[in-house]
Amino acid sequence: MEFPDLGKHCSEKSCKQLDFLPLQCDVCKQDFCKDHFTYAAHKCPFAFKKDVQVPVCPLCNKPVPVKKGEIPDVVVGEHMDRDCKYRPEKKEKIFMYRCSKEGCKKKEMLQVTCDQCHGNFCIQHRHPLDHSCKRGSRPISVAG
Question: How far is the C-alpha of 47 from the C-alpha of 41, rounded, in Å?
Answer without folding.
Answer: 11
